[in-house]
Structures are given as C-alpha cells and as structure tokens.
Amino acid sequence: MDMKKNSKIPKCGKLPDLKHKRIVVGSKQLRKALTNGRAHFVYLAENADPAITEPIARMCLELRVPFTWVHSMKDLGRACAIDVGAAAAAAT
Questions:
Q1: How far is CA 13 from CA 8, 16, 32, 76, 90, in A?
Q2: Furthest-apart CA pair in the chain: how many Å?
Q3: pTM of structure
Q4: Is 11 exposed, middle or buried (0-12, 13-18, 19+ CB in 10 A)?
Q5: What stretch of H or E contains 79?
C-alpha cells in the first residue's frame, strides 16, 4: 500500500517552521500523542525506515489525522529546530 501518493509536500518546499509551535518529535512520543488525540497534523520523512513511518501513517489513517511526507529526515529535524534528523513529528 503506497500511502505517499496524495499527501506529499512539494519538492520546492512548503514545510512549515515548526520550532515555535507545540510539537512532538520521535515515533514513540508521536504514537502516544496520536493515541491520546493530541496530534493534529503529522509529518513523516520519506527517507526514514519504513518500519518506523508506515505504522504511524496507518495510525493516522485509522484515526483520521492528516499527515504528509517530507523529503528528508534532515529537513524535518531542521524544521523542528533539533540538531539531528527526525523520522516523524506532529503539531499538537
């Protein structure tokens, strides 16, 4: 199942600056936020391990939380104002 087709930020970039927003970074914390209904929008990195991102994408579909794919973990980490890449993040 290819969940990437219709939910991708354009390559030209439109990834919002998340550093001044309430966010959750990391798959474990993100799964908790989804379960608790705190995640409002999810960002997943295309180059992250599918074993991490695909279960989160399925959770988003099941819980009807909008999500999108970003180009890289590095871009997502930078948008979250962290010094390392991020596989997943959510605005809460």
A1: 10, 9, 28, 11, 17
A2: 34
A3: 0.83
A4: exposed
A5: helix 73-79
